[in-house]
Amino acid sequence: MIDIQISDKPLDISSCIDWVMSPDCGGIDVFIGTVRNATKGKEVIRLEFETYRQMALNEMQKIAEQALEKWPVQKILIHHRTGVLQVGEVPVVIAVAAAHRAAAFDACRYTIDTLKETVPIWKREVFEDGEVWVAAHP
Amino acid sequence: MKVNVLAFGIAKEIVGGSTVEVELTSDATVGELRAELEEQYPRLAQLASFMIAVNNEYAVADNALQQRDEIAIIPPVSGG
Questions:
Q1: For this UniProt entry, which residues form the secretion signal (chain A) (predicted)?
Q2: CATH superfamily for domain A2-133
Q3: Is the ipTM of this complex over 0.90?
Q4: CB distance B46–A137 less than 8 Å?
């Protein structure tokens, strides 16, 4: 089972975990992305996320389907925030439930790593003295 | 044909809006669109990379374009 969402409201981590919990699963692996207070020693004020919504949902769905094919996992949830996030807020939650832990760890790592490569979501870091689109330039 | 191209992230700043109209030949490909965009907006070529999406899928250079396609410039993604 797969649950994919993009939301402009705060992500509810415990309800994400509740969704993947299942009697036939012996392990849940959760990745929580949080807004860090600095990049390369420079203080970050906030992050602004923009999405190409329908394509982002499609790409997240593909990643979850690939993970379900590659590993014996039962449930995968990917929730991503959009809009303005302050330091400490949560842009992304990935939760994976499997019968055994190795598959849950591997599928969770694959999901966040691939999301960062393929899903059309962009973040802009806002500093005291300027702003930068992350990863835009070499 | 004229196509409307969606722009996101830094591409939106480079083209000066969330959509840009581009004039192409009627049998144009994704590669020709890229070349036209890079000519009109040289700052696109300075990005780490950029992709073109057609109807919500990543496209490759020899994919053909049609006027009613939903086309988008995808600069380097940075979600998560």
A1: none
A2: Molybdopterin biosynthesis MoaE subunit (3.90.1170.40)
A3: yes
A4: yes
